[in-house]
Amino acid sequence: MNNSSPIGIFDSGVGGLSVVSQISNVLPNEDLIYVADSKYSPYGNRSEKEIFIRSEKIINLLIKKYHVKVIVIACNTATAACIKELRDIFSIPIVGMEPAVKPANNLTKTKRVGILATTGTLKSSKFAALLSHYEGDTKFFSQPCQGLVEQIEKGLIDAPDTRAIVNQNLALLESKNIDVIILGCTHFVFIRHLIEDYFNQTIPIIDTGFAVAQQLVRQLEANNLSNIRESLGHFIFCTNDESDQPRKALARLMPDINFQLEIFN
Q1: What is the pTM of this model?
Q2: Catalytic residue among 82, 145, 185, 238, which?
Q3: Can you count the helices (H) and strands (E) in the chain?
Q4: Which of 19, 21, 38, 233 is the most exposed place for a label (fewest CB within 10 A)?
Q5: 79 and 106 share one domain
Q6: Residues β-bridged to residue 163
């Protein structure tokens, strides 16, 4: 592992590509290896033990096959379920996701904040502790969005069924008179425009992709692992789904990115 080694990133599926987009903007000269655990997506429906087993397997793949220098868990559910245990096992720096509760708390005027996330994130003890730290005058209303991750995994961003799921969940939050929305799942960044349409661009929508990219920069600098070359980095997209679905979803979600496709077991 040295400063020319790639950065490893993983998620249950293609949702973490929203984080890849931010990382590639901030660190265009770094090589990125992205692993989509597509066969086991979504993680939000799985137990913390299952998520830990999958996460450990993928990190081992990234270290042993690709010799990555840092890991980014581009998944709120996996971060909430097992980042502490993974950091105890692996010596490599690991950057995780965290719903943007603090900035939302600072931004809200009505002190009523909506959170869109998966069931797995919302039921985790780590997420509960995060909310309890900031709850006081502010009330947080969490909304699990069943079926939305699956739609995004298929690349059906603007499909009528996707919009119906989004609108149904937003109607429940709207009834709570929220004035800020937190995207607590990396997948949901890709349907930000549907949320904006629902609220006629009147409500701030916060995600943590850029904050994660900034934290990654700090980790690379602290460990003297920043790539100092000037040429653009390469992007490898790995999936354990041999169908065309992940590749097609990637092409729809990030149409301008050049990538090398690899399959893992």
Answers
A1: 0.93
A2: 185
A3: 11, 10
A4: 233
A5: no
A6: none
